[in-house]
Write a structure and sequence with these properties.
Layout: H1 6-24, H2 36-40, H3 51-59, H4 63-67, H5 71-74, H6 80-84, H7 91-105, H8 112-128, H9 133-144, H10 146-149, H11 151-159, H12 173-186
Helix pairs in contact: 8-9, 8-12
Bound molecules: iron/sulfur cluster (SF4) (2 copies).
């Protein structure tokens, strides 16, 4: 990180932390870097930046580096980090807010596949009220080539009935769709 004037650094730090506070209601200044969030994160192995470091980088005003990371997209929103945090910080909510900020800023070039999974997943939930895995795999393949790299996994799942050929639409699918559309409107996204 380049050396910057301290007063300038303070201003920059405050700006990004305040933006995150506005998007999430979480004050990253409460984090004292104990690392318990990262120690318990089941997806940390696949992240380019561990959760506690993401929080630290937000404190330091490293906006571009954080919004361009893959971490915010591979986070599974399991909330283990949030449950473990002794300071009441909510890293899972912060990851949510950072995803929204990355989309708004158009900073998704380093995570195109992850963003595609995210959008197709939400699309499937909106249509059926639950995930229709086979359609997700096929649409993902058209976008990214994902399935061609994973036929060794997909074929046994199909033959063992773990992937159904036809979708099952939940009874309350329309209500689920309305919830997703309302959430998208609240976040200022296109539903
Ligand atoms: S568990 Fe909480 S206080 Fe500890 S590093 Fe993570 S966010 Fe910060
Ligand atoms: S919510 Fe995300 S960052 Fe937190 S433990 Fe789960 S996968 Fe890791």
């Amino acid at each position: 990180m380049s050396v910057v004037n301290l007063s300038e650094q303070k201003l920059v730090n405050g700006q990004f932390a305040d933006e995150v506070l506005k998007h999430t209601g979480v004050n990253v200044r409460d984090c004292y870097q104990c690392g318990k969030c990262s120690a318990g994160c089941p997806i940390a192995f696949a992240m380019d930046i561990r959760p506690n470091r993401v929080i630290r980088m937000v404190q330091l005003g490293m906006k571009d580096e954080v919004l361009e990371s893959r971490t915010i997209w591979v986070c599974a929103t399991c909330s283990t980090c949030t449950a473990r945090c002794p300071r009441g910080v909510d890293p899972a909510r912060i990851m949510d807010g950072l995803r929204i900020m990355a989309l708004e800023a158009g900073k998704t070039a380093n995570a195109e596949n992850e963003v595609a999974v995210h959008k197709l997943f939400m699309d499937s939930i909106g249509k059926y009220g639950r995930l229709y895995e086979l359609e997700l795999f096929l649409r993902l393949t058209l976008k990214t080539g994902f399935l061609f790299k994973n036929t060794d996994l997909a074929l046994p799942m199909l033959t063992k009935g773990k992937l159904s050929f036809l979708p099952t639409k939940l009874k309350g699918a329309n209500e689920v769709k309305k919830i997703i559309e309302a959430a998208a409107r609240l976040e200022g996204e296109q539903a």
